[in-house]
Design goal:
Elements: H1 19-49, H2 55-92, H3 96-131, H4 139-149, H5 153-167, H6 172-196, H7 201-225, H8 239-273, H9 278-305, H10 307-316, H11 319-345, H12 347-355, H13 361-374, H14 378-393, H15 397-422, H16 430-466
Helix pairs in contact: 1-2, 1-6, 1-7, 1-9, 1-11, 2-3, 2-4, 2-5, 2-8, 2-9, 2-10, 3-4, 3-5, 3-8, 4-7, 5-6, 5-7, 6-7, 8-9, 8-15, 9-11, 9-13, 9-14, 10-11, 10-14, 11-14, 12-13, 14-15, 14-16, 15-16
Length: 467
């Protein structure tokens, strides 16, 4: 007689499955999920850019909204990426009660942050949009999109934050499904609301909110009723647990927040030093940043989706598996970035991508040129993501946070200096220059500092076992 499984879902055993297969099974779904997640913004921008008569200016307006959208993602990452590694470590220690308490506290933190963000963003959105570079022509489109998008803040925060707790328990396929459901729905709803119902920019925002709500509902179902071993409960609330989550999550939060600062600096410098071409440069930058999302988001999926392997084995004290896993994570990231480098530098593929957003020949030619420049150092970027996110996955914030700040600091300095000295278009060289320097420094720190930290972990767990 056949016995049917209650949950026919692949379970990844983080402490015993072969590392190469484990990394592949976790990295690929997370990478694909983030790639599909990029479609949230790219599809919106693609359709908006093709709105008759006002597409180019409306596209720049949505680009100005980018920092606020990114800020919301940063707060979700603060809790999701702060709590997920801790849950993995507790699971590695076979402490299910501790893992359950972490998830319960993170759920409350996510809801609280979503409410605060919604209120704060509504009160400040007009001033923020102007500060972020919105010109008089662009502002109406940016304000319209943002006003509606903020209604779904709670859905965005919960869907992004809770997805990490699905992935870190070895269910990367379900994490991927959560993202894909929302992205596919967004793709279907965008043309309906933007063109069929003639809602324009408002339609793009409505489609995004509805899609995020569905993703959120799926994540909640999995963490309340699904096959994951650690589910959301309403007990074990603790200020020390919240403190630990917020401390560890500070690194990914600040990384994303500083990405926000970078976008703001870019827009302000292009606006102030672009002269008569400032609106055109802002539109081109929106498309360039959309292109970068198809690189950085899946790359973050590879490095973030495999953090559970590092965290679990760090909790178990199996440093040999940690070293092997980090090696395979880095190889996967380098392979992905090499493919994307070729894609970015090839005129045909870059031109096709830009053509999705605008049919204006001048805009297309300029944007393809900027993409070529901006992606010159995409391959070294793989080193930065794999090593820094790996450190965060093992809760080694003392090393990951300074390395993240270092790269962002170089970028901001260059993004300010280059336009002043060489003109607004020179700003696009800030990315490749900072990526090369950061990759070199990160590699040096990783190979000199991390082996000692792992030896300390082995010694600490060895003493506990003896006792």
């Amino acid at each position: 007689m056949k016995i049917r499984r209650k949950h026919p879902v692949r379970v990844n055993h983080l402490g015993s499955d072969p590392i190469p297969q484990l990394v592949r099974r976790l990295a690929l779904p997370a990478m694909l999920a983030q790639f599909v997640n990029v479609l949230y913004s790219i599809i919106d921008r693609m359709y908006i850019g093709n709105i008759a008569n006002v597409g180019d200016i409306a596209l720049a307006g949505v680009g100005i909204c980018g920092p606020i959208v990114t800020m919301i993602s940063a707060f979700a990452a603060w809790i999701g990426n702060g709590g997920a590694p801790l849950l993995s470590i507790k699971s590695g220690e076979q402490n299910k009660e501790g893992a359950s308490a972490i998830l319960a506290n993170c759920f409350v933190l996510l809801i609280g942050m979503a409410v605060c963000l919604t209120i704060g963003a509504y009160l400040c959105k007009d001033a923020l949009l102007v500060w972020f570079g919105a010109t008089e022509r662009i502002f109406p489109y940016a304000e319209t999109y943002m006003r509606i998008y903020l209604i779904g803040t709670v859905f965005a925060v919960l869907s992004l934050g809770l997805n990490q707790f699905i992935i870190c328990q070895g269910f990367s396929n379900l994490g991927m499904v959560s993202v894909i459901i929302g992205a596919v729905l967004n793709i279907l709803l965008d043309p309906l609301f933007i063109f069929a119902l003639h809602m324009g920019v408002r339609g793009a925002a409505v489609a995004t909110v509805l899609s995020q709500a569905v993703s959120c509902a799926f994540s909640l179902y999995i963490l309340f009723r699904g096959p994951v071993p650690v589910k959301i409960t309403f007990r074990g609330y603790s200020l020390p647990v919240c403190r630990d989550v917020l401390t560890l999550g500070l690194t990914p939060f600040l990384i994303i927040l500083f990405d926000n600062v970078l976008i703001i600096v870019q827009n302000v410098m292009l606006k102030n030093y672009g002269g008569a071409d400032s609106d055109m440069l802002l539109t081109c930058n929106t498309i360039v940043q959309s292109f970068m999302l198809i690189i950085t988001m899946p790359l973050g999926g590879i490095s973030g989706g495999t953090q559970s392997v590092l965290g679990y084995n760090y909790g178990a004290g199996d440093t040999a598996r940690i070293r092997l896993a980090e090696k395979h994570i880095l190889k996967t990231a380098l392979l992905f970035c090499t493919i994307m480098f070729v894609f970015a530098q090839w005129d045909v593929s870059a031109g096709i991508f830009v053509g999705l957003f605008t049919q204006n020949a001048a805009y297309r030619s300029m944007t393809v040129h900027f993409i070529h420049i901006y992606t010159l150092s995409v391959i070294p970027l793989a080193v930065q993501y794999a090593l820094v996110d790996g450190l965060t996955g093992m809760s080694l914030v003392c090393a990951s946070l300074p390395l993240s700040f270092f790269r962002k600091g170089i970028y901001i300095a260059l993004a300010v200096f280059l336009p002043i000295r060489f003109g607004a278009p020179a700003m696009f060289y800030a990315e490749p220059l900072s990526d090369v320097v950061a990759a070199v420094v990160t590699t040096i720190v990783f190979v000199t500092v991390v082996p000692g930290l792992l030896r300390k972990r082995e010694a600490l767990l060895g003493k506990h076992i003896e006792k």
